[in-house]
Amino acid sequence: PPFYDSEQEVTEPRQGDGRSRTAMTLYEGKYPGGEVGFCLDILMDQCFLYTNGRGNLIPGWTVIMCGKKTSFVTLHHNVTQVLGTSHVASAEFGPGNLTRWFLARSW
């Protein structure tokens, strides 16, 4: 699910169309830093897991999926600044009413 930064974001109707949030508990929907914080924590975990124990990264690609475009834009900007444009790729997937954004990065 999309992760929100505050209890208010989890429980209030969506901005814009006023639809209610998906059925989730507060613990499922809230994460420190919201979706960006969750994705950055995943990135840090992947950096740790993709090392060979000596601090050398094992080459490869990893992907994160974002449910909010604002999160994707923030993550894309930050990851591109750290890794450089040649190590970052992105895609948008929206076959129906939902759109998701994907951020891939190589080591």
From TrEMBL:
Cross-referenced InterPro entries: SAM-dependent_MTases_sf
Listed Basic and acidic residues bias regions: 11-20
Ranges of compositional bias, category Acidic residues: 1-10
Gene3D superfamilies in alphabetical order: Vaccinia Virus protein VP39 (3.40.50.150)
Region (Disordered): 1-21
Official protein name in the record: Uncharacterized protein
Organism: Entomoneis paludosa
